Amino acid sequence: MHRIFQSFVDGLADSNDPASLRATMVETATQLDVPCFAYLAMPSHSKAPPQLISTYPAAWTVHYMRQRYERFDPVIVEALKSPEPFQWGHDTARNRSPAQRQLFDEAASFGIRCGFTIPIHDLHGPVAAVTFASDTSQGAFGRTIEKQSAVLQLMAIYFHAHARRKLAPDRVVDGITLSPREYECLEWAARGKTAWEISRIVGISRRTAAFHLENAKAKLGVHSIAQAVARFAASRPLGQ
């Protein structure tokens, strides 16, 4: 498992666009028997569409995005409410609204009958969700998830960290542009992570993580990482 996960982290580090990020996730998730996945990142503004990277059938994802299903998708609704991972299935749709039952029926017709969703929240609230899905029975899928849930949660966190850093339109804090690594390390510091924890998440050494934090601190003209984090948090729009 260590070799598989290290290969995943290395692949993310080498990925620079949605296609390569997707390929990296697919390669690792396939080895864990959960090749069907979707990463949905919430928009900064309510009128903007979410960002989606997935292996779901294209006909379904196009329809989903066109209909703005994320607004009432029970899976996304639950992910917005709680940071705890959860399983779901088509069989649980009976207690949903008619629109939600229709959504589950449509998803099932494309082979998405059950799933395991990992919400990703930061200091400002929910920001993304990673779902591993299947067209098998919920019981069989649940047994797979029981074995792999811990590594899948780590994969979701790492995937989001790399996707946000590499696909972000800008990395500006108070008008000062940071490098991708400086911004990423400062963002994790804002979530309460130490340099050592950041190094493990990002896939770099502790010394390198500390180096990037020091560079960010110097660029922002502050005397401590706590001050840099405060400026970072203050510069982000509400809801981000």
What does this structure look like?
This protein has 240 residues and is an alpha+beta fold. It has two domains: 2-163, 2-Layer Sandwich (Beta-Lactamase); 172-235, Winged helix-like DNA-binding domain superfamily/Winged helix DNA-binding domain (Arc Repressor Mutant, subunit A), CATH 1.10.10.10. It is built from ten helices and seven strands. The chain has helices at 2-14, 18-31, 58-66, 74-81, 98-109, 138-167, 180-190, 195-202, 206-220, 225-235, and strands at 36-41, 51-54, 86-89, 114-122, 125-134, 172-173, 176-177. It has a five-stranded antiparallel beta sheet, sandwiched between helices. It has a two-stranded antiparallel ribbon with strand order 6-7. A hairpin with a 2-residue loop joins β4 (114-122) and β5 (125-134). α1 (2-14) runs parallel beside α6 (138-167) and α8 (195-202) crosses α9 (206-220). It is globular, with a radius of gyration of 19 Å. The model has no long low-confidence stretch (mean pLDDT 89).
